[in-house]
Amino acid sequence: MTYAAFRSIGAYIPSKIMTNADFEKIIDTSDEWITKRTGIKERRISEENEASSDLGARAAQVAIDRSGISKEEIDLIICATVTPDYLCMPSTACLISSKVGLPNVMAFDISAACTGFVYAVSIAKAFIESGMKKNVLIIGAETYSSILDYTDRGTCFIFGDGAGAAIISATTNKDEAIIDVNCSSDGNYEDLIKTAGGGSKHPCSKEVLENKMACIKMKGNETFKLAVKTLTSDVQVMMQKHNLSNEDITHFIPHQANLRIIKAVGEALGFTEEQTVVTVHKYGNTSAASIPMAMNDAFEEGKIKAGDTILFDAFGGGLTWGSALFPFSPKK
Ligand code: UT7
């Protein structure tokens, strides 16, 4: 039997920092309000010449270097992003494939907003368990700064740019295997988080540009309530299915959208502060990159060790949501 093992994690954090004080200069807000309502103090913004593929390729290189797997062994690249370099083609995964020097590998993007990385884990697992692929590079890469309306004070201060990546590989050792990934969606909530313009529904036009329809619009408060409910029930279902208690989880890594959401979910589920990985204060919400960037931070701080049980919990536009349960299994 072939299983899928989560081998390595990497990230790329753009160096440019945008603080809450920077937002005080462009919208009617305050550091105090943003901190109290979201826990966010700063977020990273990519350079003008950096697109999602540039961020993703840098994160991918770190994940490859840490995996103990040679680049040539990678046979699938999946990039989760809703801020691709190009709206239609080529895919960001294709661009990453050439940037990391893997031009002859199957590569495609997936669009599941903030749940994208968890969807990518699920797809990688399926490809490996079916025997179709052996070493999958998954990436979550976002440049939200390219789709933000910096006059929309209800949304623009939340998001940031960044990328995370991982290598998932075939193994015959069940102890190393990803235990479960559960992903879902509900398009009935399409209007909660949306970029309405620029696609086939409202193709690029004067109206789309004038009304900033290609920028993200979010109904924050409604989204907040659904996020807390869904992120909580998602984990409850996963834990019950595998007959797990909180002590069985070493690191709970929720989507980093808002510290109040993370705290509410963590408290409802009974995870301790030590178990819960939090990076939202320094990176804001980086959508598909948020979970791998958070995991990478914990890894670089020496908190994540081989064999630790990790639980991802994501929620985002679509709506989409999902959780992944796995041991961290670096190659021995
Ligand atoms: O990653 C995908 C999932 N996304 C999320 O999970 C995001 C979920 N939503 C949120 O994080 C929060 O809803 C926000 C941080 C976006 C907003 O916080 P909130 O506590 O839900 O605020 P609100 O939208 O209910 O607005 C409360 C008040 C309003 O004023 P009034 O009507 O009470 O006078 C807003 O106009 O806060 C005002 N407000 C602001 N004030 C200062 C809204 N944005 C700002 C701002 N600075 N930037």
Automatic annotation (TrEMBL):
Active-site residues per Swiss-Prot or TrEMBL entry: C114, H255, N285
Keywords: Acyltransferase, Cytoplasm, Fatty acid biosynthesis, Fatty acid metabolism, Lipid biosynthesis, Lipid metabolism, Multifunctional enzyme, Transferase
Catalytic reaction list: malonyl-[ACP] + acetyl-CoA + H(+) = 3-oxobutanoyl-[ACP] + CO2 + CoA
Database matches in SUPFAM superfamilies: Thiolase-like
Domain notes: The last Arg residue of the ACP-binding site is essential for the weak association between ACP/AcpP and FabH.
Family assignment from sequence similarity: Belongs to the thiolase-like superfamily. FabH family.
Protein localization: Cytoplasm
InterPro entries (UniProt xref): ACP_syn_III_C, ACP_syn_III_N, FabH, Thiolase-like
The EC number(s) this enzyme carries: 2.3.1.180
Transferase in keyword set: yes
Name of the protein: Beta-ketoacyl-[acyl-carrier-protein] synthase III
Pfam families xref list: ACP_syn_III, ACP_syn_III_C
GO molecular function ontology, one term from the record: 3-oxoacyl-[acyl-carrier-protein] synthase activity
Stretches assigned to the Beta-ketoacyl-[acyl-carrier-protein] synthase III N-terminal domain: 108-187
Span of domain Beta-ketoacyl-[acyl-carrier-protein] synthase III C-terminal: 239-326
Subunit composition and interactions: Homodimer.
Chain residue ranges for the region called ACP-binding: 256-260
HAMAP family: FabH
An individual GO BP term: secondary metabolite biosynthetic process
Pathway noted in the entry: Lipid metabolism; fatty acid biosynthesis
Organism: Arcobacter caeni
Its biological purpose: Catalyzes the condensation reaction of fatty acid synthesis by the addition to an acyl acceptor of two carbons from malonyl-ACP. Catalyzes the first condensation reaction which initiates fatty acid synthesis and may therefore play a role in governing the total rate of fatty acid production. Possesses both acetoacetyl-ACP synthase and acetyl transacylase activities. Its substrate specificity determines the biosynthesis of branched-chain and/or straight-chain of fatty acids.
